[in-house]
Amino acid sequence: VERAKEKLASLPLSLQSRIDCHVAKAEELPFPDGHFDRYYASWALHLVSNPHNMMREMSRVLRSGSMVACSVWGRPEESLWFTIAPSVLKEMGLELSPGTPPSRSNFHLGDLALLRKMFSEAGFDHISTWYQPNPL
Fold first, then answer.
1. Which DSSP string do the residues of 21-46 spell out, in sequence order?
2. What does residue 64 show for φ and ψ, rounded to 5 degrees?
3. Dihedral (C-alpha) 103, 122, 132, 40: value to the nearest 10 degrees?
4. Is the C-alpha dihedral spanning 132, 117, 55, 105 positive or negative?
5. For residue range 90-115, what is the model confidence (pLDDT) as tens digits?
6. Measured between alpha carbons, how far is 33 from 129 in angstroms, rounded to an integer?
7. Neighbouring C-beta atoms of residue 119, cutoff 10 Å
8. Residue 4 CA: distances (Å) to CA of 27, 73, 107
């Protein structure tokens, strides 16, 4: 947040007065209903404990007709940045993080139909989802 505030200070005053920086849990936002007209979450939804709660909070804090944009890890076969190192280590007989395996994969929201269903259940309509090609 401190770095964001430093960046904010370099913007024109007309923008500075319209932007606030906060630390908050995505699943329990400290804002009133209908407070925002845009919500952007890049590579966060698939990492929170309960994505359903995060989606409901998105819906709650957005005004009717607002827009949300999220990115999540898609399919492992198209996400080489996140799969190549663990694959190489596995082939070498090494573990990336020894111990208890994670309870779910970071790719658990990579199914577009599932993602659309979850957004719909959270109160969103006009939902668009797609796989973004990885240039690697």
1. ----BTTB--S-TT-EEEEEEES-TT
2. -60, 135
3. -100
4. negative
5. 889 887 666 666 778 888 999 999 99
6. 25
7. 21
8. 21, 24, 28
Tell me the pLDDT tens digit for each residue of 29-82.
Answer: 999 999 999 999 998 999 999 999 999 999 999 999 999 999 998 888 887 777
pTM of the predicted protein model = 0.80
Q: Which sign, positive or negative, has the C-alpha torsion 85, 88, 90, 96?
A: negative
Q: Are 56 and 48 in contact (CB under 8 A)?
A: no
Closest listed residue to residue 87, CA positions, set 76, 75, 74: 76
By the 8 A CB rule, do 48 and 76 touch?
no
Distance CA(118)–CA(129), nearest Å, equals 12
